[in-house]
Amino acid sequence: MHTRSSRWIERSLKSVWHPCTQMQHHETLPLVALKQGKGVWLYDQDRNRYFDAISSWWTNLFGHANPFISKAVKDQLDKLEHGMLAGCTHEPVVELSERLSALTGNALGHCFYASDGASAIEIALKMSFHYWKNSGQPQKQEFVCLENSYHGETIGALSVTDVTLFRDSYAPLIRNSHIVASPDNRQAKDGQTGTDIAREAADKLETLLQEKAGTIAAVIVEPLVQCAAGFVMYSPEYLKRIRELCKHYHVHLIADEIAVGFGRTGTFFACEQAGIWPDFLCLSKGITGGYLPLSAVMTTDTVFNAFYDRDITRGFLHSHSYTGNPLACRAALASLDLFRLHNVISQNRGISKKLDKALDPLKTHPKVRHFRNCGMIWAFDAVMPAEKEVAFPRRFFETALKHELLVRPIGNTVYLMPPYILNDTDIALLADKTKAVFEEVIEE
Ligand SMILES: *Cc1c(COP(=O)(O)O)cnc(C)c1O
Question: Domains of the chain by range and CATH?
Answer without folding.
Answer: 4-65+344-443 (3.90.1150.10), 70-342 (3.40.640.10)
